[in-house]
Predict the structure.
Amino acid sequence: MLHTSAKDLLSQLDQIIESCKDEDFVRPLSELSDSTFGQHIRHTLEFFICLFDAKNNGVVNYDQRKHDTLIETDKKLARSVIASIKDFIDKNQQDFELTFEANYAVSEETNDTMKSSFYRELSYNIEHAIHHMALLKVAVKQSLTYISLPENFGVASSTIRYRASTKSN
């Protein structure tokens, strides 16, 4: 189910990227604190890319994202990255150990490390994507109203289940 959830979210992102006009993909939006639609897409995808890269060295460190401006400015490239991530998810159905590494200090260059796994980090990527999708949803509803959002875009699965359970009562 984890794999399906991740791929479904990526498909939703792909759908809205396709719908977004090129000029709107790179336009700073006040609803995103003057970040662009493309920057939020890039940021979200780069977390998945970090996980993809961790398959080779066993260490996932989201602080070491590349901040690839091409992903945030080129819709075709962003969509290609999504296809690659989905392919990676398809090919990695088994859990494997990872080391999670992060620096939470403001002024020091020291990393905290802890044991993690592919499944744990994939679940984190899902939550992280939902968070950014919720932000994108605000921007779409305010400034990019021509984009049709998939149902439940930017809504956690637990919230969807909760809403469904309260409707039947």
Q: What stands out?
A: The beta strands are 28-29, 35-36, 59-60, 97-102, 112-117. Residues 2-167 form a domain with the Four Helix Bundle (Hemerythrin (Met), subunit A) fold (CATH 1.20.120). The first strand starts at residue 28 and ends at 29.
